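Technical annex B. To support the medicinal chemistry partners, we prepared a structural model of the target in complex with zinc ion, based solely on the information shown next.
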Amino acid sequence: MDALNSSGGPNGHDWGKGAAGDGSAEDEHASHAEMSDWEHSHGEGRHGHQASLGDALDFVNTLEYDKGEAYEHLADVPTTVQWLQRHELLHKEMVSDLIDRYEREDPQPAIQRVRKVRGALRELLDATVEQRRPESSALREVNRALRAPYLIELVPAKDGVSLDHRHEGDPLAGAMARLSEAVARELTQGDPRRMRICANDECRWVFRDYSPAGRRKWCDMATCGNRAKAARHRERQKAKEKDEEPVQLDA
Ligand SMILES: [Zn+2]
């Protein structure tokens, strides 16, 4: 909820599920001082090797719809970089450098790239929910994102070892790769039948249904669920009133 409120979204959506706490281990970063500017390792962070599905769905939902109108949470480079950092997809100490770098160059290509990946991920999720073939352009885009080069390496963990990875190139590309990987794994190795798009056509919030029965239709009963109920109620009332209209009797 905090993430949404701080970025001023229109709906009462629960953004907390994938949002990161401050899990960065400060002491871990010192040992990375010898790395080049854009290399980074995630060490013993919350996600280890992968971004969580919650992060990826939060990412897709950064283009939020409220009563059918789009609300862009990734409006510019600073908000995008900060969003990714909050979700532990970029290191905190990179944030100001990255913002400077993209603002100095033309920020538009970076923003467009992020939005293209986001749109492509949404198409894959939509296709899964609608049980149809995805558009091939979306598949190409996500595959491109997945190709960002990184090295897998083992790092010590409190209880043994864990798998980590280190990006060699552009940190934004690395973040897009991790988000894409989370969606790709869920749709192929997870439980794609649990993916949902809010049944309110003016909302279309993407979420995973964790309810025991697996019959969740709305992003949130309090907003979309209630709106739908209210609309059904109004329609029933209207139908009733129509039925009760005085019948014109022939003279
Ligand atoms: Zn909804």
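Notes passed to the chemistry partners:
The pocket of zinc ion is lined by residues 198, 200, 203, 205, 218-219, 224 (CB under 6 Å).
Confidence is low (pLDDT under 50) at residues 1-8, 16-47.
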